[in-house]
């Protein structure tokens, strides 16, 4: 019996020793790679709530892709969020994350965090960032209510000296795209038909400009004019591109995008005279399109430049005019980036992270 | 029924302590059950694998939920969103809605989502449970593609009282209390179970997703689960019996946030589930055969974060007839009708679905060494294309001596899953043109048993092959998502299980192990850019091993249980993965007995190695923790 007890005790010890082995993969943060030009930052949103957003860097010269560059720059700390957008401002990259709600503030070259992320009880679903005069303005959806509307929509004002939230400004529902132009901040309130204009020095709303239903994003053309794309909303309205004069803050021109089913994703080319946008055919079709329209156009495009499935985001390389399309892969795991030249001929397809949604170019 | 047999039954079915039941008792018990009638999965589903977890095993898990015990004892892989949270399982490389949980033949899967929640079913309710692996639609209907969990309870017609009390205290503010009483006079019997579990679940962990990787306590992961089960059985005559069962289960769970959202109360959500399951059953045994009628009602209610409510009600009527011929042939025929009323705002008004199943099960003992079965089921759904599910099985006794026995088993089946209500009716996106998912399953295995004085050895091996076609996925369509029959998965694998028992004097040793190797391969990409073709399904580890070593000495018992989970991918493209992990529990207990009173105390150390791991990407799991469990049993017998 004694022998059996000994056998039992040694078995416990062996198994204990085996199960107690634990690895710690942390590596020192010296010698971090820098993501220098020429290249493209790919923002991979990740599946909502799964915390599997990531950033990839595509070196356009060597055609090499580096994945999970946030984790590489931060001692394997996972970003553990959906990344809605990334904005570069003064050598710093602002990573706007939801689920978990936070703004990671990182070095624009190494993606190493400069500090703990910006978090606040009211910072629920931050969307997009615009920087001006050392202040950051962030559109914030707030929580959905029981009818799935967004009654707590806000713009957060961040002091970029110490990266603390100064205040929240109430804005109309669903603030999405945001842009700094002419010493003003423009906000597309996508659940309404309003573009809100804020004076960054007083941090107060100076104007609510009525637009087409569901304005989403902005672009500035070569003449310094501001373009806003709107989807027309779910009730069957017509999508539009509208040109706002930033001197008068009035709409001077509207282009109907009938038949395009524009999703609100847009980008402008390097010479800032052509606007690209995505459209998704209505149910039950799964086809998506890329359209292009000149800033001088009076009518929307009749045909699409490219079409395929799963177009989810887009970017136009400012030097070459190459078209980058983010392919969602049906939201089933990691997606792809499709690269075409300016005339729409396929150049390359590269592997991205989960649900790529946008591109930032460094040339 | 002799007193000895009766006591054996009491010990095995109702006395939840390791170390009381002897092997000789279990043999007698098996004979008794045969008298009462073998369950369907034994009689008709020949050649497939059915694992039984008996009361002795379940007793150690009195405070656990179904998911915990299955993942530890049968090695099936749980997909669980945090500790104690909503859990589904992947059986034989299928999806989380390809397994069915059946309570006395009643399917408990959510009609809206399709999958069962393994975390909301307390093990304490059941005296035994069975896992039937592989395609089981012929026997159990929709959803039984990868396997089925069978929770059955039968009247024991015991004359007297039996009362079990169980109390567990665990780390992180977890308590479980349960009372189980069975009473009767031989012609009628009642069983009442009341249970309550609460866990604060604020375990410490290192938050590897936060700046500086701080140590934190888990927030918003508490859960409460309580309920009541009442059964009444009445023997009208020696040929007729009537039974009634009602089970109310309530669970209120906070939803554990991903690690990065820990300590952010503004993001916290919670979920409430309430289910009422009522079942009545009438059986008549006459010269023509056995007739059975079952009438059931199930209502499920779920509320997410005090916002959206999802509820379904269903009524079920099942009639079946069974006949055993002296030639060794037996057959069972039946029809089941189901009417389902969902209450979901996103469905069109007055959505109702009717389902009818007809089935015919046959088995034949050709020779003492050869049994074969052939089964058919046809399913009809209102306004919707239906499905045919046949199965065929064989068992051969290849070799038999007084000490050794070798069996060869083979089974082939077709199974199906009707699209969920969300798949069909959710607005926008619901797709009425969906086909049912269908699965083909082939398996073959060898079972070897060896027994001498002191030793008992059992070894089983299974090889399986399965295909799931028309697997439903929600994909982006226009401005929303819609389900389509687009995925195709081909799985194959090997399961090995071994069980050795050795008795010497006061010592009894028992070592068990179950290993599975599963290749679950997605067959095609969804588009030309999709890289998921020929890749392993996410959250389906290729290797999984569970094992335990138990030793009894007089009234003491010690056990070690290990669980190895291999590397698992987190996405269909296999570009992200969670590392493998090995967890071990140590359990020590002592039981005592005086007349008709028995008791036991056991202490368990969970995750003894304090391994930090994630079972699901970004969800924290606890390190080492402790559990103390007390059981009391009291019985009287009038015979």
Automatic annotation (TrEMBL), chain A:
Residues 1-22 form the signal peptide. It holds the Pfam family DUF5074. The keyword Mitochondrion does not apply. PROSITE patterns: PROKAR_LIPOPROTEIN (PS51257). InterPro entries: DUF5074 (IPR031815), Host-pathogen_enzymatic-act (IPR051200), WD40/YVTN_repeat-like_dom_sf (IPR015943). Keywords: Signal. This is DUF5074 domain-containing protein.
From TrEMBL, chain B:
It is found in: Cell outer membrane. Signal peptide: none annotated. It is a multi-pass membrane protein. The lineage of its organism: Bacteria, Pseudomonadati, Bacteroidota, Cytophagia, Cytophagales. This is TonB-dependent receptor. InterPro entries: Beta-barrel_TonB, Beta-barrel_TonB_sf, Plug_dom, Plug_dom_sf, TonB-dep_rcpt-like. SUPFAM superfamilies: Porins. Keywords: Cell outer membrane, Membrane, Receptor, Signal, TonB box, Transmembrane, Transmembrane beta strand, Transport.
